[in-house]
């Protein structure tokens, strides 16, 4: 069975999608990723979609679901490398990708995850918790 590799980088997971996404592969990625988040107590997920030229409504919904599930499991999600045509398609389909932060590239995405982790650590130190 085809799988997308999920790499661990400290407290973060890195997913680089280098193949065309079909529905079954997207569902497998969703399951694999949520399992890995819980296995290593990941605090962030970075998904690189720079190789994707097409994102249909189903794949867009899966990305949104991944972000929601990750958030429930106490991990932030950042999608990086979105091609302009993909962004246009998502807007035309009416998919807002709620809960997903975006960045232009992996470097900026990792910086966003680190900043988010630092902010949540500060909130925890001050006795504030999210609900």
Automatic annotation (TrEMBL):
Annotated source species: Symplocastrum torsivum CPER-KK1
Annotated InterPro entries: Bact_StressResp_Reg (IPR051932), STAS_dom (IPR002645), STAS_dom_sf (IPR036513)
Pfam family, one: STAS
Transmembrane region(s): none
Chain segments annotated as coiled-coil in the UniProt record: none
Gene3D superfamilies: STAS domain
Ranges of residues in domain STAS: 2-113
Domain of life: Bacteria
Name of the featured protein: STAS domain-containing protein
């Amino acid at each position: 069975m085809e799988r997308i590799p999920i790499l661990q980088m400290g407290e973060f997971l890195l997913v680089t999608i280098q193949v065309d996404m079909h529905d079954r592969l997207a569902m497998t990625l969703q399951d694999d990723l949520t399992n890995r988040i819980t296995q290593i107590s990941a605090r962030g997920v970075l998904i690189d979609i720079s190789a994707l030229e097409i994102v249909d409504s189903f794949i867009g919904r899966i990305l949104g679901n991944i972000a929601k599930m990750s958030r429930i499991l106490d991990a932030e999600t950042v999608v990086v490398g979105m091609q302009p045509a993909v962004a246009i398609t998502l807007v035309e389909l009416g998919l807002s990708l709620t809960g997903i932060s975006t960045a232009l590239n992996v470097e900026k995405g990792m910086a966003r995850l680190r900043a988010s982790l630092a902010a949540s650590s500060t909130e925890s130190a001050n006795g504030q918790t999210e609900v």
